[in-house]
Structures are given as C-alpha cells and as structure tokens.
Amino acid sequence: MAKFLSILKHNATFPYLFCKNNFIFKRSFSFSSANFENTLKLGGCIIGDEIISGRVKDTNFEFLAKKCYQLGIDLRKVEFIRDDMDDISAAVRRLSKEHDLVITSGGIGPTHDDITYKAVAKAFRQGMAYHNETLVRMRDLFSKNESYNTIPDPVGTEEQVAVAKMALFPEKAQTFFLSPKHCVPAVVVDRNVVILPGSPSFFQSMVNEFLKSYLENKLPGLEINADKSYGSSHGFTCKTLESVLHEPKIASELTMLQNKYSPSGIRIGSYPLWASETKSTKKLTKVVISVEGTSKEIVERCYDELDELIKRLENKYKA
C-alpha cells in the first residue's frame, strides 16, 4: 500500500527554463509582452506543503513548461500553493478565469492533507461524489498486486474509506482515463480545470496524453472553439544572440522592435550576464537577447532585424 501512495507524491529536482538552442537562462524576463491571440493560454497550480517548505524539490513545473514550449502553448502563470482549502480554491478560481486551461498537480491521495478535489469543488460550488469507474479500476489493480493490501470501499474500514477518497471527485466533473495503466483519471472541472497527480511519473505521462488529445479535439465535451487554432506543428521557435553592450544602451531600441513585432506574437527577452559567467568567452558578453514565437518565419525576420540593430549599436558605441 505504501508503494502505491508514494507514487502520488512529489519527488524531483528543481527546474530551469530553456530555449530550443539549449541556451540555459537562470533568470529571465520578457522585455515586453507579445499578443498571442490564437495561442492556448495555460495556467498551472502546484500544490503541496512539502513543495512550499522546500523539503521536496518539484520537477512538474519544469516538465509542464518544456511541454508547453514544445507544443506552442502559452504558459502564462504557475502558482505554488500550500495544502490549504481556501488558498487552493481561490487560486484555481482565479486561474480558471484568466486562462483557457488550468492544470493542477498534487493533493489527490488518501491522507488528511490531500484536499485538492474538495478545494476545487468548493471553488465552483459543487458537491462531491464517488466515481464508480475509478473505484472499479482501483479495486482491479489492487486485487492483482499483493503490495496493495487495502481494497477501496467508501463504506468499509477506516483504511478502505481513506483509499476510496482518491475516487471522490467534484460531482459535476468530467473524467478521462488517458491510459490503460492508470486507475486514476484526469478530472476536469468547469471545462478547463484539469486535476492531475503530483507524482512526476504519473503527472508527466498524463500531461503528455491530455494535451495531445486536447489539441487534437479528441476529448468529448472539451472541444476547442472553431475560431481558435491552438498550438503549432513545431511549438515555439527561439533564437538568441549575444552583445558586448550593457542593457541600458540597447533598451530603447529593443522596446521599439518589440512594439513592432508584438502584434505578430513575438517576444523579445533580454538576459544580462555578469563577469563570472563570461570569463570563458572570447568577447565580454554583457547580454543575451532572445526572440521567440510560434511562427518560425516571423521569428527569423525579427532575428535578422535584431542582428542588424545590435551590430549598428555596437559600432556606434565602439566608435
């Protein structure tokens, strides 16, 4: 039993974000916001006292960020929330209003601090109900594995009721079993809040399957609006270049370039480097500038313009 419960908990290492050319940014900020009108806007909610306290390092955010980048999904915000009913409810309700899709991670086990299902139900003023198919799948799995010595039963012993809690969902939720290997489904509330386990192996597998099915319109009741064209065939394209100039010398020019390309969904990022990070380089790079978007053609066009701009400014200040 302990083995099964442990896979529903977090166990991982902390993430870094990346560009497709594998340049690693340890700190990053967008120079200005771009307008991704036809891009799926996604919010994340990582739940657990063990994450907030730093006792367990999270990798689910890292995985979600990379997956969204690969699929051309605009991951707008990720919130880390402790195991508190009101905090989870408020966060989920807020994220649901601000995004096309919200994915939560953690808090769906059998213990007293696993309250995600109940908190999401509270956020949307729903009651709770046992999901029969989930109970059947759990019983089938447990009966075939000797290490699971407690069969879930909502009216059984205290331990059986605790295990059955993992099949107690918001009463109006939609459920999607994404793989025959999973006895716990993706639970969707109010059409856009997707509740997933915190275990990295389960979370990653279910994110892969859910987003793939969602973007392909294969989830009944969650069809994408025909006016939208979410995702892209190649995800985001990102190109970077380096400059020996400090940010203040290029700031106004970058702002003008960003304003020009914002309507096309292009983001320009500026990332300062310090002396300790540039000792091994042939030139003293002061800043790395990135250009990213879902259209490879427009990214290339903006990058070429940026390249000419930086060369001109470097010659100006060199002189």
TrEMBL record:
<dbReference type="InterPro" id="IPR036425">
    <property type="entry name" value="MoaB/Mog-like_dom_sf"/>
</dbReference>
<dbReference type="GO" id="GO:0042726">
    <property type="term" value="P:flavin-containing compound metabolic process"/>
</dbReference>
<dbReference type="Pfam" id="PF24102">
    <property type="entry name" value="FLAD1_M"/>
</dbReference>
<dbReference type="InterPro" id="IPR056596">
    <property type="entry name" value="FLAD1_M"/>
</dbReference>
<dbReference type="Pfam" id="PF00994">
    <property type="entry name" value="MoCF_biosynth"/>
</dbReference>
<dbReference type="GO" id="GO:0047884">
    <property type="term" value="F:FAD diphosphatase activity"/>
</dbReference>
<feature type="domain" description="MoaB/Mog">
    <location>
        <begin position="43"/>
        <end position="217"/>
    </location>
</feature>
<protein>
    <recommendedName>
        <fullName>MoaB/Mog domain-containing protein</fullName>
    </recommendedName>
</protein>
<dbReference type="InterPro" id="IPR001453">
    <property type="entry name" value="MoaB/Mog_dom"/>
</dbReference>
